[in-house]
Amino acid sequence: MSNLDRSPAARVLGGPESTTAGPSLELLPGKEVLLGESTRVRRLLPTLGRRLVGAWAFVDHYGPDDVAAAAGMQVAPHPHTGLQTVSWLLEGSVHHRDSLGSDVTFGPGELALMTAGHGIAHSEQSPHEHPRFLHGAQLWVALPDGSRDTAPAFEHHATLPGWTSDGLTATVLMGSFGGATSPGVAYTPLVGVDLALATGADVEVPLEPDFEYGLLASSGSATVEGAPLDRGAMLYLGTGRTSLRLTADEPTRLLLLGGEPFEEQLVMWWNFIGRSGEEIADYAEQWNAESARFGAVVGYDGDRLEAPPLPPVPLKARGRQR
Ligand code: MN
Fold first, then answer.
1. C-alpha 119 to ligand 1 mean position (Å)
2. Residue 306 in domain
3. How far apart are the first and last CA of the chain?
4. Centre of ligand 1 from the C-alpha of residue 20, in Å
5. What is the distance in A from the centroid of ligand 1 to the CA of 115?
6. How large is the average pLDDT for residues 154-174?
7. Are the C-beta atoms of 299 and 103 separated by less than 8 Å?
8. pTM over 0.85
9. Residue 202, domain member (yes or no)
10. How far does residue 61's CA lie from ligand 1's centre (Å)?
11. Which residue of 1, 95, 119, 284 pairs with 307 in a disulfide if CB–CB is 3.0 to 4.6 A?
């Protein structure tokens, strides 16, 4: 999806001071954000106190929404730079088109991974005929400086690796987890895993001590190292853990996101990630001028999203972000 906010705040993200040294159990309750006229999402990242988890820079959780009598997701063509979008559905379906010519409809359990790199444009829509419920997560991964200008790409993986053990089914979206490795191309050491817990599950899952992690409850609820995690909330877990104990009293879906702490500072504004305010302003100007940097989304019936006005204060990638 897109950041549809017409007056988005600029965010400075990253830097070595933003990582917690050692384990943590910090509740990120998320914030309800209205996207467009009708879609409500819960934004877990960035949040006031926490801007990145590894290279994961943006986490929206939406639904389940009953869209039987509605158009569902309708996001007009918009640009991205310097990031990857990771689209993950628990219910529903989404039709993705982009300026590379990709034209793909994906559903639950499938990975739609778009590398914006130098620049791309895409649209996302519920197909005309769609399932009753729409439920998923929209995630962004920041690209490191050496890769952020890479050529854009789109990957659709209809099946993903994973494993089942003791009431837990793990599906690996990005990176490696418990011996299973996603085919999705990543540019920094990171992981994204869907964890489906059966009623009564009591499991210990392996973590990388060098990674920091966040854990989102997409549906149901769980106890995480003794701490409650309710649907729609996220726990920041810090670093230095080699395992994590999870229990559930109901069928529960969790999304585990982690990675090596991202040490570069970024500027994130609207749908762009860059390194300076000047760069972001250039991206916005180029998008609004229909620059070849982003290309055009062929087949979309409607207008593009214009970049909103830049904030009056220059965007600077500098300083502590708390
Ligand atoms: Mn988007």
1. 12
2. no
3. 26
4. 29
5. 11
6. 98
7. yes
8. yes
9. yes
10. 14
11. 284
**What pLDDT sits at residue 13?**
66
**How close is the Cα of 122 to the center of ligand 1, in Å?**
6
Q: What is the pLDDT of residue 321?
A: 40
Indicate if the pLDDT at residue 322 is higher than 50: no
Nearest to 217, CA basis, from 115, 135, 111: 135
Taking the centre of ligand 1 as the mean of its atom positions, its distance from the CA of residue 201, in whole angstroms, is 35
Could you tell me if residue 265 is inside a domain?
Answer: no
Number of H helices, E strands in the chain: 1, 27
- Distance, CA of 246 to CA of 249 (rounded, Å): 11
Q: How far is the CA of 24 from the centre of ligand 1 (A)?
A: 31
For residue 200, the CA-to-ligand 1 centroid distance in Å is: 37
Calculate how far, in angstroms, residue 121's C-alpha sits from the geometric centre of ligand 1: 8
Instruction: Please give the distance, rounded to the nearest whole angstrom, from the Cα atom of residue 5 to the centre of ligand 1.
Output: 13
User: Which CATH number is 191's domain given?
Assistant: 2.60.120.10
Percentage of the chain modeled with pLDDT above 70: 90
* Total structural domains within the chain: 1
* pLDDT tens readout for residues 79-115: 999 999 999 999 999 999 999 999 999 999 999 999 9
CA torsion sign for 237, 243, 246, 251 is: positive
Domain interval for residue 30: 11-259
For residue 91, CA distances in Å to 136, 190, 273 come to 7, 25, 29
Kindly list the protein residues that place their beta carbon closer than 5 angstroms to ligand 1, a single-atom ion.
Answer: 2
* Ligand 1 center from residue 217 Cα (angstroms): 22
266, part of any domain? no
Question: What would the two tokens of residue 219 be?
Answer: 């549906």
Closest by Cα among 309, 200, 281 to 246: 200
The pLDDT value given to residue 319: 33
